[in-house]
Amino acid sequence: MNGVWAAALSDSVFDDHSPIDGALLCQVANCGAEDVDRAVRISRAAFEDRRWSGLAPRERKRILLKFADLIEAHALELAVLESRDMGMPIAVAMNVNLPAAVESIRWHAEAADKVYDEIAPVGDGALALIMREPLGVIAAIVPWNFPLMITAWKLGPALAAGNSVILKPAEQSPLTACRLGELAVEAGIPPGVLNVLPGLGEVTGKALALHGDVDALAFTGSTEVGKLLLHYASRSNMKRVNLECGGKTPNIVMSDAPDLDVAARAAAFGIFNNQGQVCNAGSRLLVQQDIHDVFLDKVCTVARSLKVGNPLDPTSQLGTLVDGGQLSRVQHYVDGGLKEGARLILGGQQLTREQPGYYFEPTIFDGVSNDMTIAREEIFGPVLSTLTFTDVEEAITIANDSPYGLGAALWTRDLTTAHRTARRIRAGTVFVNAFGGVDMTVPFGGFKQSGNGRDRSLHALEKVTDIKTTWINLS
Questions:
Q1: Of these residues, 31, 245, 279, 300, which one is catalytic?
Q2: Which top CATH class is 250-445?
Q3: Which of 33, 117, 210, 411 is the most buried (most CB within 10 A)?
Q4: Which of 82, 103, 171, 244 is catalytic?
């Protein structure tokens, strides 16, 4: 808070336990509405006195590049914090999460002095300037599944544009956010420009969403919470609400897929990466009928080969679910799938370990219909639902028959099929003969109840800035 450590005004704390073994990692300040009000006042003062927004863009760039360098220099420390705090395999934390976070800060830092304003073609009698300006105070509410990476997705554009930011980490994974606050001060980001406010979502997050002096919410999380934030914004000051919410990604495999082995490996990692705790996880596998048996056998072979183990073991490919509540949620959906008639062909149970921990087997259902709960609702765990289709028209119908529209994938040799299908699927990103692998140059976000707005790319600046026209009479 304001560049220094501070206790919650109530001195309240919450326990932060590791999902690896249940051990108490530390106690974290449990911020309430009064702390939110304090943080907003500090953030507003920092914005209004222009200690950050008034800097030349190239100067903000210099400081943010140093910030990115510090994150990179502390990569192992941050990766271990992330793994211990939420159960992410250390290999994923080091090779995916940390590089993506560094790239986001660097990329947006470099964009700070390279995005130009406009002059409207209005004729000789006037000069019309169209400029993007920072919104002011941005509340970034981030999830627990990829805490550092998604935090960087929010901070990069917001800080590059000149905003003040209040970062609210998930209560399940607050540690890297707190460390990031220290590194920001060390990099030279002025006190008050970035404040880190841990606490419970239903208290701290709600207070931020209801606060009348917060200009925008940048949120990644569940659709259920996203809807609440829209409601809170309407009850307060009509603040901007940019949402990246749930997903139920269809992964469509045509019989003419160029390489079934490659597609099978991508299908397995597309759902089991980070224990399935990924918003655009490929949780619905749509397989053309004539290759169904062969392809599903290949996916099962890959799934059986995955090592589930202690997240701090560099050879572990799957770690733990984030907490006991998430474990219960996943088990509930697996039990529900069986009751609705889906056929469980792999996994389905918590793994027993010498130490307590929330490990769950890679799980695959077959014989799933798209009206089953496991095909409709986001499980956020290592559970794959397999559906069968006869032709591309049926595949498109099934893919679009969902309240979500975050991502989709298609495997085919036919270029015409690829283009036409990608155009017709209602999703923010459609992968063709791939699953994942994009970078900062392309936007990320969804259609329908997967949210609005975009992270990554220059489009991310649109949600943390506003357009102002200055009309100058020259007549």
A1: 279
A2: alpha beta
A3: 411
A4: 244
